[in-house]
């Protein structure tokens, strides 16, 4: 299996379930048929190899078919968050010179379309037709005019199948090209890590425009011959209903979603959950324990990034050890802890986590500077994360290198502080970050969301921390907020939180 086309089997077993009244159940044979039909439509429209197809669709069967059909046509699928504003769509469409932009039915005048027009991209509405077919309703041909009736293509392992952009928290978002080989290797790794088989069925809660949802929540399970339940979006009120009705036995999500489910009414009786996977953001040991206690299933924290086509490490299934506070061991990839010169440090010593494997991108698009900074001479990719290996080789992340708090020369891990803050009974969410300080250069700020009905002062929080950590790790400033700023995938971006909290302190100009 070296292309996405090879990974989709044929047969009558269930591939996809879309909850509804009635639910839409798609077999593997029907899925292949629909992908091939849509691929022919793309070829007729003028999509040729390496043309970029921007997909601004929500989680849905049309998204799935459009994504796979584009990759089968040797085009580059570029999923985009449908909630983007026009300026954001413009950046991504321009960056890839997208040939086609797909939008939901009835959105032919939305922000994605306005952005497409600016760069003369073709526009088509994509939706489920009355006969169960996936419709490609072309509204504007744009630059594809006169280039129709291309040949139906066969993908090769080294074709770029997917381009996603990094979050851009440290500057301009970087375009990450992922080949069929990259993606199918990750799919095999995920399948092997969790012993996925045709008997497994997962509940998709992460967005498909994000590598977590696309690879771990969808493509990995599909490659195993299992089934994927695809609601339009995550909803705590309907999650367990769909999970039990359609007989799911595992799911993968960010810690934010796990915490929402912990606060929501639990199903009675509990379904048989084989495992719960957590990824894309650090999982505190407390939430780890709460999940296992609440749902009676092993919680497996993993570590991933877009540049590795998602998964790099994971805690293994029982009876192997799963370790709270660790992201586990390498899964189909080499993991080394390297210093600034690219030399491996002694086990237990902290340095940069670096990876090498068939799933890892060969480099960013049109960004030689970033490529030189990110790849060692031996071909290891520098993750930007600081960490170490414990005596058993389990990886422990201690923070983003650029996010470590440097207080007078003392390097403080914000993840360590987050985990301690989460232990306070009044705290629902907590994030620590660096703040400027005249004496130390940097000091510690923390932002807290309290549990409903709870009360806590900044001084009480500091006293709690004094009992838990060394004096130099006690925060200087404590901010309280009702809503923690998050990305579209539920990931908390430390730097953004810090900037938002500090902005609240600035005196407003008098009119």
Automatic annotation (TrEMBL):
Keyword DNA-binding among record annotations: no
PROSITE patterns: AMP_BINDING
Gene3D superfamilies (alphabetical): 3.30.300.30, N-terminal domain of ligase-like
Keyword field contains Lipid biosynthesis: no
Entries under Pfam families matching the protein: AMP-binding, AMP-binding_C
Superkingdom assignment: Eukaryota
SUPFAM superfamilies reported in the protein's UniProt record: Acetyl-CoA synthetase-like
A GO MF term: ATP binding
BP term (GO), one: fatty acid metabolic process
Name of this protein: Peroxisomal-coenzyme A synthetase
Organism: Cladosporium halotolerans
UniProt domain AMP-binding enzyme C-terminal: residue ranges: 416-491
Entry's family note: Belongs to the ATP-dependent AMP-binding enzyme family.
Domain AMP-dependent synthetase/ligase positions: 23-365
InterPro entries, A to Z: AMP-bd_C (IPR025110), AMP-bd_C_sf (IPR045851), AMP-binding_CS (IPR020845), AMP-dep_synth/lig_dom (IPR000873), ANL_N_sf (IPR042099), Pcs60-like (IPR045310)
Alphabetized UniProt keyword annotations: ATP-binding, Ligase, Nucleotide-binding
């Amino acid at each position: 299996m070296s292309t996405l086309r090879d990974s989709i089997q044929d047969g009558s077993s269930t591939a996809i379930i879309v909850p509804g009244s009635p639910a839409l159940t798609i077999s593997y044979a029907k899925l292949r048929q629909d992908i091939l039909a849509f691929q022919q439509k793309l070829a007729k429209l003028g999509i040729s190899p390496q043309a970029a197809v921007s997909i601004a669709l929500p989680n849905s069967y049309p998204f799935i078919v459009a994504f796979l059909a584009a990759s089968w046509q040797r085009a580059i699928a570029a999923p985009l968050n449908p909630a983007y504003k026009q300026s954001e769509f413009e950046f991504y469409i321009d960056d890839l010179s997208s040939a086609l932009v797909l939008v939901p039915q009835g959105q032919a005048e939305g922000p994605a379309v306005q952005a497409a027009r600016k760069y003369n991209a073709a526009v088509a509405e994509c939706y489920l037709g009355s006969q169960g077919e996936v419709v490609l309703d072309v509204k504007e041909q744009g630059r594809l005019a006169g280039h129709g009736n291309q040949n139906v293509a066969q993908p090769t392992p080294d074709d770029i199948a997917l381009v996603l952009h990094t979050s851009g928290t440290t500057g301009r978002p970087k375009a990450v090209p992922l080949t069929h080989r990259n993606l199918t290797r990750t799919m095999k790794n995920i399948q092997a890590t969790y012993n996925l088989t045709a008997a497994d069925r997962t509940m998709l809660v992460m967005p498909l425009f994000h590598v977590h949802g696309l690879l771990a929540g969808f493509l990995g399970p599909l490659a195993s011959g299992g089934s994927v339940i695809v609601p339009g979006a995550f909803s705590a009120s309907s999650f367990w209903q769909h999970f039990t009705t359609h007989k799911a036995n595992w799911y993968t999500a960010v810690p934010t979603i796990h915490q929402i489910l912990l606060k929501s009414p639990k199903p009675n009786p509990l379904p048989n959950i084989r495992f719960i996977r957590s990824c894309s953001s650090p999982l505190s040991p407390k939430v780890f324990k709460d999940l296992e206690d609440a749902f009676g299933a092993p919680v497996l924290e993993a570590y991933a990034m877009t540049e590795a086509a998602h998964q790099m490490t994971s805690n293994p299934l029982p009876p192997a050890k799963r370790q709270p506070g660790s992201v586990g061991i390498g899964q189909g990839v080499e993991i080394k802890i390297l210093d600034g010169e690219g030399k491996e440090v002694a086990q237990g010593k902290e340095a940069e986590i670096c990876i090498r494997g068939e799933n890892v991108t060969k480099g960013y698009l049109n960004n030689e500077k970033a490529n030189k900074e990110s790849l060692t001479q031996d071909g290891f990719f520098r993750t930007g994360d600081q960490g170490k290996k414990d005596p058993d080789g389990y990886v422990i992340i201690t923070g983003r290198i650029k996010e470590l708090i440097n207080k007078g020369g003392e390097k403080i891990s914000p993840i360590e502080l987050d985990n301690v803050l989460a232990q306070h009974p009044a705290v629902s969410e907590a994030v620590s970050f660096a703040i400027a300080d005249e004496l130390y250069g940097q000091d510690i700020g923390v932002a807290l969301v309290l549990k409903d009905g709870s009360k806590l002062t900044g001084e009480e929080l500091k006293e709690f921390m004094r009992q838990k950590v060394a004096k130099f790790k006690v925060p200087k400033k404590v901010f309280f907020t009702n809503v923690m700023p998050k990305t579209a995938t539920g990931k908390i971006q430390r730097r953004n939180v810090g900037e938002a909290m500090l902005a609240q302190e600035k005196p407003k100009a008098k009119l």
